[in-house]
Write a structure and sequence with these properties.
This protein is mainly alpha-helical and 281 residues long. The chain has one domain (4-278): Orthogonal Bundle (Helix Hairpins). The protein has six helices and no strands. Helix 2 packs antiparallel against helix 3, helix 2 (21-112) packs antiparallel against helix 4 and helix 4 (162-234) runs antiparallel to helix 5. The protein is rod-shaped and about 160 Å long.
Length: 281
């Protein structure tokens, strides 16, 4: 159909050349309908642009959802790795502590168990010497065992003694807790993005329905303008009245577009369920 500016120029030209009241009334009504058409065209154009904007924002938010869920999965994997490290260090700590306790127990048993029988006063020098050597060996063994047991309580360069393992285990525990908290936060952020994307998508759908209503109103106004033009050429009032009625219908359609209710629905943009959250928590 001819554009709005052409209709306005045609109406203005008809008004200048009108020689009877009917033609003048039709020309004025054509100008009014053309103005209505221009307004509907502008509103419809902006509404279509808003639909595209909302869809773009929804897609961007869904991209953020995928990015954040990826981060949450990565952080969750790191947290699980830290948990495994903590468990391994705890098992290593228990193993070393048991070894230390075994050494202390053997030393205590040697202390409590009778060693060399007392040497008689009339024993020869060799017997006394052997007995003294046995006592010295036994004492040295006990001291050696206690020294080895005590070494487990001292930090070393390898960081594999009891205090080191405790410290490393505590660091692994804190890291695992920190990473779990970050994963939960990332999951909540993803849920927020998902909800925002759902809102944008639903708003885009609502605005799209409005745009469709505006398109019909635009068509109705165009028909009204054409019918008024035909009335001007044929001098028949029926075309004029029908054209005015079409313009009124166009206005009614525009008004009804703003009364279209929102219809929230569950779609792929819905927030993740508890099961979905567990996959990246």
């Amino acid at each position: 159909m001819a554009n709005t500016h052409e209709h306005l120029e045609h109406a203005e030209h008809a008004g200048h050349n009108a020689s009877d009241p009917f033609n003048q009334r039709v020309a004025v009504s054509m100008a009014i309908v053309a103005a209505i058409l221009a307004a509907i065209s502008m509103v419809g154009h902006r509404t279509h642009n808003k639909v595209l904007q909302l869809q773009g924002e929804s897609n961007r938010l869904l991209g953020d959802v995928n990015r954040v869920i990826g981060d949450a999965n990565r952080i969750g994997t790191e947290a699980a790795s830290a948990e495994v490290e903590k468990s391994n260090l705890f098992a290593w700590y228990q193993s070393k502590r048991q070894r230390k306790e075994q050494l202390e127990m053997v030393a205590l048993q040697l202390e409590l168990t009778p060693g060399v029988e007392p040497v008689r006063k009339d024993a020869d020098d060799d017997t006394k010497k052997k007995a003294a050597e046995q006592v010295a060996t036994r004492t040295k063994t006990i001291a050696d065992l206690r020294k080895r047991a005590a070494a487990y309580d001292k930090s070393n360069d390898k960081k594999d003694n009891l205090p080191d393992l405790l410290e490393r285990g505590e660091e692994a525990r804190k890291l695992a807790e920190k990473l779990r908290a970050e994963a939960v936060k990332a999951g909540a952020e993803a849920a927020t993005f998902r909800q925002d994307a759902s809102k944008r998508s639903q708003e885009a759908e609502h605005v799209h329905h409005q745009a469709g209503r505006f398109d019909i109103a635009h068509l109705s106004a165009e028909i009204g303008l054409v019918l008024c033009s035909i009335a001007l050429l044929t001098k028949k009032r029926a075309y004029w009245f029908i054209g005015l009625a079409a313009a009124v219908v166009a206005l009614a359609l525009v008004a009804s577009a703003y009364t279209i209710p929102h219809h929230p629905h569950v779609d792929s943009h819905a927030p993740p369920t508890a099961t979905e959250k567990d996959t990246y928590h």
